[in-house]
Sequence to fold (239 residues):
Amino acid sequence: MAVTVSIPTILRTHTGGQKSVEAAGATLAEVIDDLETNHGGLKQRLVKEGALHRFVNVYVNDEDVRFAGGLGAAVKDGDTVTILPAVAGG
Amino acid sequence: MIRRDLVDAMVAHARRDHPDEACGVIAGPEGSDRPERFIAMDNAERSPTFYRFDSMEQLRVHREMSANDEETIVVYHSHTATEAYPSRTDISYASEPQAHYVLISTRDPEQHELRSYRILDGVVTEEPVEVVESYMFAHTGADDTPDCP
Fold:
């Protein structure tokens, strides 16, 4: 189950500068765990207390996973996971 | 350095959405540090004290920019009751190391305030804003200094 994960500039220090990397998993949570084994430090930038961090948006293909199951969102072979920093403030 | 029409577009957007906060980006060629394409974004919060890019619009814009070899050069938003200085929330969310964070205050109906910052690892550094009519003819005065790197 290989998916392509698109990494934003701010997190590329964890991927040796690569814009996108491959990972495996049947759910977003599994994909993130797999990312962590190859690119240590990524997980804590994405997940906090068992949920997606409010500072990031994560999409599976065209879906924002906040509205599609969160970390439990299903991922299948050939999908694209896109990580973007949330742009927000006061 | 930023073109006058782009400054005018940010201010007009901020005035239009007042008293809610307005937000958006200006894209430019990757690595150029030159803002060129103005993109007003929806404030998903529609709030006078908070803004957040609509996540689906943000994904669309991200894809457009990747396809055009562009990156975010400016991230702008307005403060409608306070000065044009990044709030604590602004600083905690800032995550584009290459971007200029532009703040526009619309608290005074006659006179806006527009200021620009770098925000890196929680540290805010204000930078001067030079408004030009065109990047092509903007001049530094020294022949050995390129106008636009």
User: Anything to note?
Assistant: Helices of chain B lie at 4-17, 55-67, 88-93.
